[in-house]
């Protein structure tokens, strides 16, 4: 993964989205003890996004813990005209995903967990496909892996030592 972590969250207005909530049961000699785990995505809808996992005995506490964990795990994603700069594939566990840039007006063509992450980033047009496992945890992590590998056209031009015209026109 590239070093595109966000240093400070003080001046960023983050919106949180609940991706999945899971009721977990622990069997003890006194009966069953129920608790909850929540996976949450936060983002400013302008290129900054993070995810977190919260576990607690109550749903609201689990979501709050997930939001706090997500704020500690923020990354910066290059968004180019409402879409991603290039195609990207990623895999995490059994979940494989493919993200493709889309023309303006296409919308976010993605399923559940991936949609929450992409909308939190601020991407408005993208074609996304998930293959393999549909486990929300692994889909979120695979989407983050793909977004973390994204490079802006400016970065590519600087690394190659050429102008932007050469990057776009070959």
From TrEMBL:
Keywords: Ribonucleoprotein, Ribosomal protein, RNA-binding, rRNA-binding. Residues 14-77 form the S5 DRBM domain. InterPro entries: Ribosomal_Su5_D2-typ_SF, Ribosomal_uS5, Ribosomal_uS5_bac-type, Ribosomal_uS5_C, Ribosomal_uS5_N, Ribosomal_uS5_N_CS, Ribsml_uS5_D2-typ_fold_subgr. GO terms for molecular function: rRNA binding; structural constituent of ribosome. GO terms for biological process: ribosome biogenesis; translation. GO terms for cellular component: cytoplasm; small ribosomal subunit. Coiled coil: none annotated. It holds the Pfam family Ribosomal_S5. PROSITE patterns: RIBOSOMAL_S5, S5_DSRBD. The keyword Ribonucleoprotein applies. PANTHER family: MITOCHONDRIAL RIBOSOMAL PROTEIN S5. Part of the 30S ribosomal subunit. Contacts proteins S4 and S8. With S4 and S12 plays an important role in translational accuracy. Located at the back of the 30S subunit body where it stabilizes the conformation of the head with respect to the body. Belongs to the universal ribosomal protein uS5 family. The N-terminal domain interacts with the head of the 30S subunit; the C-terminal domain interacts with the body and contacts protein S4. The interaction surface between S4 and S5 is involved in control of translational fidelity. This is Small ribosomal subunit protein uS5. The lineage of its organism: Bacteria, Pseudomonadati, Bacteroidota, Bacteroidia, Bacteroidales. The gene is rpsE.
